[in-house]
Amino acid sequence: MVTEREQREKDNLRRDKLSGFFLDMSKLTFATSVLAGAAPIFNSDTSASIPYVLIGIAATVVFAWIGRLILK
Prior knowledge:
It is built from 2 helices and no strands. It is mainly α.
């Protein structure tokens, strides 16, 4: 049988892993969409990549916020 203490430790571990997943997703989203979307800005077509950069920033903030909520 699983004791209450063991169950609490498992729940805390699951919460830590899930929040880590969302925080990693925010880092990956930032790296792929914002940095890769910003590359064409240095060329000639700046207007095409600005929406991608803004969407990437918004998704990064949302993923980081979800990860922070799970940690609480």
